[in-house]
Amino acid sequence: MNLWFSKFRISAALDSAKPWPRSLERKVAGRDELRRFSSEAQALDSALKQAREDSDAPPGLHASIMRAVRRAPASAVGGSRRVVWRRLAAPAIGLAACAMAWWVWHQPPPPGAAAGPPSLTTATRALDLGSEVTQAMPAAVVAPMSDELARVRLDLDQTTKFLLASLP
To answer: pLDDT for 21-33, tens place per residue?
Structure first.
């Protein structure tokens, strides 16, 4: 952005034919790109001035061309209507999206929905389920261990019987 502004200042200084400000001269001296732009712009400026002096165009040609350009319809010059629609498209879409979001968030609840706070039936069901879980959980957790303990007892009893039967 700063480089673009410096180029603009160089162009304006060439157009005004006044001496350049010292700050601009320092900037041009410090940057290669600005030096190149400055030399190209000065060469173009002198070439255009020379071409203007060498041309055999009538003196009122510029004024008549500018009048014709001003009278030309906008669609022939550059289609300014299309530019307006291009610039308005994004804000219009954004506005439509905001309006849609506002409409969705401010919809009244459906007729079957509760208007007040939720009832306590869900909490009551959760508490009932909790008491069922506390009664069923120990049996479900301990059942595999009980079965294993019963098998160990059976193995111990059979081992005892075998050992007693083996004694003379």
So the answer is: 888 888 888 888 9
